[in-house]
Specification:
The protein has 437 residues and is an alpha/beta fold. It is built from nine helices and 25 strands. The strands form eight sheets. A five-stranded parallel sheet has the order 3-2-1-7-25, with helices on one face. Helix 1 runs parallel beside helix 7, helix 7 packs across helix 8 and helix 7 runs parallel beside helix 9. The radius of gyration is 22 Å and the shape is globular. The model has no long low-confidence stretch (mean pLDDT 94).
Length: 437
């Protein structure tokens, strides 16, 4: 059943929510935005109630490869902007496209419940300073982000020191005069480890598996701005990029890092050279996975042990849409199964935006996802045959656009896609529904 005419509900005013809001406004679709924070920016606003940002956080991709195409970042902004620059960017974006009047800020969505069968709309219940409210909408677009609910591991034994998740890390002063163990060597874990090296008494990094490390600069330019002009088959791309990494990074195993047990691009790389630098200088010890905890002593799986005052788990985040029943999202395993990560196979009044990750996708890739969704909603309402074709296609089954890459079996990789394959599919539908030849 096609989505009914009427106002739509949009949850979230981070980069994905703002992209959707801009496109809904441009295409004349009436909507009401809801945002828990007092302003825009999502997790990039370190003052936000559920922000997982920390003081030294910067983009791991360059501004050139991350920004919205129709709203470039200011020329004076650094190649890898800080979270404060990013908050300002999103505020400027919202003001430029006049999106603020479309949002209720300080509004926490509590429940989203279907009014009936597919296409019959949703009742949204939210809470703000004046109390609890409910209103009915023709459709629901969820864009509340993917990095707010901690994935906190459990350990055998008892730790008598401080044990926190990276979501509760805000500034390097938390490491002062402490022996620190960072668990997890993703991008945040490596960034935070560098902070701990400079502020703690000592810092170790516990790793379950190896990673591929990518420098931020190659030949004096942001690494992600080089190449890409020629589309190469993945096997050839792996050989070429792997050779380049050896030139500029060397062999991380020399510093004690474990060797990856998967191929390049089957998981996200770590964009950090400083952690290798400090490991090479002896400022950072690489440790294996944890076996058990005993007081202040951590026993590792290789039989070694050390004492620590603080353990920080940089173990990522879980997908979490707490205001909606998982069954309504076609949830399978670690993530909802949606066509191109956003379109529900059986409903035309429910969309999940931003549940997509890929190396180099940037916000423009997510903007394209939002444009596909918005054009689809508009097309269904107008009886477009192209929108109907997409409706029939998405109903046939799950399509994730991996490009044949076998991503490692981890929750954070459950919604990972191949950038080229994904953008080709999404922009193809955008062009069809826009009437391009």
């Amino acid at each position: 059943m096609s989505i009914a005419r009427g106002r739509l509900a949009l949850i979230g005013a981070g980069p994905m929510g703002l992209a959707a809001a801009k496109l809904l406004k441009e295409h004349g679709l009436d909507f009401q935005g809801f945002e828990l924070n007092s302003g825009v920016g999502g997790l990039w606003d370190i003052e936000g109630p559920r922000s997982t940002m920390y003081e030294t956080a910067h983009l791991i991709s360059s501004k050139t490869m991350t920004e919205f195409t129709d709203f470039p970042m200011r020329a004076e902004v650094a190649d890898y902007p800080s979270h404060r620059e990013m908050k300002r960017y999103f505020q400027d974006f919202a003001e430029h496209f006049d999106l603020l009047p479309h949002y209720r800020f300080g509004a926490e969505v509590l429940r989203t419940e279907p009014l009936g069968g597919p296409g019959e709309g949703w009742r949204i219940t939210w809470r703000d300073d004046s109390g609890e409210h409910a209103e009915d909408f023709a459709g629901l677009l969820i864009a509340n982000g993917t990095l707010s609910t901690p994935n906190m591991p459990t350990f055998k034994g008892q730790f008598d020191g401080e044990l926190i998740h990276s979501s509760h890390y805000k500034s390097a002063g938390q490491f002062d005069d402490k022996r620190v163990l960072i668990v997890g060597a993703g991008n945040s874990g490596c960034d935070i480890a560098v902070d701990a090296i400079h502020h703690g008494v000592a810092c170790d990094l516990s790793m379950r598996r190896g990673y591929y490390f990518v420098p931020k600069y190659v030949f004096g330019k942001p690494a992600d701005t080089l190449g890409g002009a020629v589309k190469l088959p993945m096997p050839i791309k792996r050989v070429i990029d792997g050779t380049i990494l050896k030139w500029f990074v060397g062999d991380p195993q020399r510093y004690g890092f474990p060797k990856p047990d998967y191929k390049l691009y089957e998981s996200h790389p770590v964009v950090n050279s400083l952690v290798l630098y400090h490991a090479g200088h002896g400022d950072l010890r690489i440790r294996p996975d944890i076996e058990r905890l005993d007081g202040r002593t951590v026993h590792f799986k290789d039989g070694s042990q050390s004492e620590y005052d603080l353990i920080l788990a940089a173990t990522g985040y879980k997908l979490d849409y707490p205001f909606i029943d998982k069954a309504l999202l076609n949830w399978r395993g670690d993530a909802p199964h949606l066509y191109l990560n956003c379109l529900h196979p059986g409903r035309d009044d429910l969309f999940v935006l931003g549940m997509v990750e890929a190396s180099g996708l940037g916000w423009q890739g997510r903007h394209e996802q939002a444009e596909m969704v918005v054009r689809y909603i508009k097309g269904l309402r107008e009886g477009s045959p192209e929108a109907e074709a997409l409706r029939q296609t998405k109903a046939q089954g799950f399509e994730r656009a991996t490009g044949g890459v076998k991503y490692i079996d981890l929750p954070r990789m459950a919604y990972y896609v191949n950038k080229a394959t994904y953008r080709k599919a999404v922009t193809g539908w955008v062009r069809r529904m826009a009437g391009a030849k």
